[in-house]
Amino acid sequence: MSENKNTAPARDLTVKQGFKLSKFLVSWEMVLVYILLLINLVLMATRTNLYFSGGTVQSIIQSGMDVCPLVLGMILILMLGDIDVSVAATMIFASMATGLCCQAGMPAIVGVLAGLVAGGLCGAFNGFFVAYVGMPAVIVTIATSMLFRGIVKIVLDVNVLKVFPSFYVTIAWSNIAGIPLALILFLVMSAGFIFLLQKSKFGRQLYIIGNNATCAQYSGIDVKKTKLIVFILMGVMCGVASIFFVGRMGGSVSSTMGTGYEMTAIAICVLGGVSTNGGKGKVYGSVIATLIMAFLTYTLGLLEVDANSRKIVTGFILIIAVLIPNVNRQLIANLKLKFIYKGNKNVEALNIKTAEEVKALRAAIAELQKDSTVSDADKSAKIKKNEEKIVSLQKKCKEQTAAWLEEQREDERKAKERFAAK
Amino acid sequence: MENAKNKSFVGKLTESRNFGLVLGLIVLLLVAAVITPSMYSLNSIISMLQNNAVYGLLAIGEMMVIITAGIDISIGATLSLVGVVCCRLMAENPGVPGVVWVLLALVLGALCGAFNGLIVGYFKMVPMIATLGTMYIFRGFSFLFSGGQWWFPHQFTEGYQAFATLRIFGVVPSILVILVVVFILAALFLGYTSRGRRIYAIGTNKESAQIAGIKEEKVTFLAMTLCGMLAGLSGMLYTANYATCSYGIGEGYEMTAIAICILGGVSITGGKGKVDGVIIGFLMMAVITYFISLLPGLSVWSDAIQGAIIIAAVALNKFTERSAEKRALKERSALI
Questions:
Q1: N or C: which end of chain B has fewer CB within 10 A?
Q2: Rounded distance, CA A7 to CA B315, Å?
Q3: A270 touches chain B (CB under 8 A)
């Protein structure tokens, strides 16, 4: 995923280097595929009969699909370096709009449009405050999640809306040729988002804004407008999610449903390799992560792990998924500098240089041994010479390191004395 | 600078943010006096403060984290975990004096906070995501440790409950005394110790603070540990106050704590915020929630109203900041 590990701690700035199979196989997206396969194998091994009986895999996939439109929208939001925790509330708000329209006897298409528009309006509300007023996205969306859900509570009180277009349930629960309809729709939508992010001007602008908003502003991108559009898009995706969600719930909605969906959506995005700092991530990683989450939840459920312990697993996955990209060569070098070289950069540089020279000499020795043109006596003499060089280099390095560290300790002691004297 | 010195006391007073807050609070109290006069009795005021005291403790901890330009949304889960652990152990060992549970709560909370501080400070995770993860983890452990069980008043020992409900001088509940002590300690710590000032330095400008020799990791770690410690303390006090406990307590409390901080003028981008502002924000939130709960048929409105208040407060913050910047610019250009 990131080739330039030596210099870039956060993002990958290297020019595309063409396709390499070895790199592709260890990229984050492929790791996700391996995890998915592993979970499947565990499930297969422990519950063989269930796994191969008809419909199990389909129902697992269906169980994870109600959150998928939220994930797609969230990728764009995270790409900007923002966050939206009001998505679950917006989703319920949109469901309520649809439900009220359908209850009033309007045709299904009006209800669906009402849901999408309601979602879009909620998104525009968020986007206005984030982009044009300049408030932090976390705070705005925390507040609006209370606000939107509060409005639903005021309107619905304890009632349950039960009239919804019939195709909602069909989308969530039916299969076409053995493939869940929801999955097909999800893949179609993700294809659209991949096109949007990778091939369109708008998508490339998002990457630029996520990497450096000021820079984007100066290169002629209307950052505020783009942010507003992304938040509106997120709102519309919440409207789409309401279709999946209401269908999943069997066509009913109340004000307390769907809590915690925002966290699941964010967790999936992060697991899929979307950076929360903005400007990094791909759609298909999150698509695989959505499937992983569905299989994981189901598998843990089958292994009789209760819902609350599953929360622990989700939390750890979230943290580990974010931590893994941080554990790269840069971090290891930093730790080495801190603990082995005691923070002394001269020592670090000397050690690295010596290690490189020793490596070169060793390579020379190996080449000499392979070389058949030189006579044996000559060869052994040269090898001996090189080995002596290595030993002397290492000895020099050790002595110098010790001297420098001693110097540093002396300096520190003196500094402490001066400080104490004051 | 000279201009600022020449300003009269009244001018300074009306410019400070707290003045607006206090004014808002007074208006709110006047409205409440007209609509719900029953709010004005010593008993109802004390019970209002007593039931909201936990939010005050959480808000102080949250404030320290927000000043470092971070955020901690796991404090509600920490409160639940510590509350459950304390209650369960207390119910199983009724002979142990209450002070042990306070210490246990402080230590456990500090451990939870230290875990947050470790992954945020030393592993450089985004605070929002890190604490989102630990929220799940703490909440899950809270359930595991409780086993889905509830604890009821008859299981609570008197020594345990005394930390929240004992009336000192027959009037003030001890939880309020603890709250006031924490307020004072936090004000002293943030205002007058070098460690406290470092928290502000990191929040204002990370790079220059680091160049000045402040270790960012350590300061973040400290702030998050303190935040967790206060969350742990509030977990114990919450259960002691209500004498009931289950793993579901403290759901959404982090949002209220953040709301109080923002009402009190703590800047979410870090570096700004004072304890006195948070105290006023806390009083305001307490009055609002109590006021709404007294109005008949308005209880379903509480969420929406709280959300609207937060948005209004932050928007107001932004506008006052902008106007202050403009004024400073004018003053500077006048000097030239």
A1: C
A2: 40
A3: yes
Domain boundaries, chain B: 53-280
Is A160 in a helix, a strand, or coil? coil
Instruction: Tell me the pairing of strands B172-173 and A179-180.
Output: unpaired
Query: Shortest CA distance to A202 belongs to which of A178, A176, A226?
Result: A226
CA-CA distance, B189 to A113, in Å (whole number)? 55
pLDDT band of residue A19 (cuts 50, 70, 90) is: low
CA-closest candidate to residue A60, choices A237, A159, A180, A145: A180
DSSP state of A198: I
- For residue B91, CA distances in Å to A327, A337, B109, B150 come to 44, 50, 20, 11
What is the sign of the dihedral through the CA atoms of B190, B192, B198 and B203?
positive
A315 touches chain B (CB under 8 A): yes
Interface test with B, best of A261, A308, A332 (most B CBs within 10 A): A308
Residue B176 CA, distance from chain mean position: 14
Query: Where do the structural domains in chain A lie, given as residue ranges?
Result: 28-326, 340-421
Between CA A265 and CA B17, with CA B305 as vertex, the angle to 5 degrees is 100
CA pair distance A76, A208, nearest whole angstrom: 12
Which residue in this structure is represented by tokens 């440790």?
B145
DSSP assignment letter at A161: B
* Contact with chain A for residue B135, Cβ under 8 A: yes
Mutate to test the interface with B, among A304, A311, A335, A412 (most CBs of B within 10 A): A311
| Residue A166 confidence (pLDDT) | 81
Q: How far is B174 from chain A (nearest CA, A)?
A: 32
Please give the Cα distance from A278 to A331 (Å, whole number).
Answer: 20
Cβ within 8 Å, pair A143-B259: yes
Q: Report, as ranges of residue numbers, the positions in chain B whose pLDDT lies below 70.
A: 1-18, 297-299
Global ipTM = 0.76
Q: Is B125 on the interface with A (CB under 8 A)?
A: yes
- Report the top-level CATH class of A28-326: mainly alpha
Q: Which residue has the tokens 């799940």?
A: B136
Single-letter amino acid, residue A376: D
Q: How far is C-alpha A366 from the geometric centre of its chain's CA atoms?
A: 44
Q: How many CB atoms lie within 10 A of CB B335?
A: 9
Distance CA B163, CA B167 (A): 10
Closest-CA distance of chain B to residue A155, Å? 9
Does A311 sit within 8 Å of B140, measured CB to CB?
A: yes
pLDDT at position B7 is 57
pLDDT of residue A122: 93
Q: How far is CA A37 from the centre of its chain?
A: 19
- How is residue A285 written in tokens? 């990683």
As given in the structure block, the two tokens for residue B108 are: 């456990």
Tens-place pLDDT, residues A342-372: 777 777 788 888 888 888 888 888 887 777 7
Of A136, A149, A151, the CB nearest to B269: A136
Q: Does B124 touch chain A (CB under 8 A)?
A: yes
Burial code (b: 16+ CB inside 10 Å, e: under 16) for B62-82 equals: bbbbbbbbbbbbbbbbbbbbb
* Structure tokens given for A234: 């997120």
Contact A251, A168 (CB under 8 A): yes
Q: How far apart are CA A341 and CA A358, in angstroms?
A: 19
> pLDDT tens for residues A37-86?
887 788 777 777 777 777 777 888 888 888 889 999 999 998 888 888 88
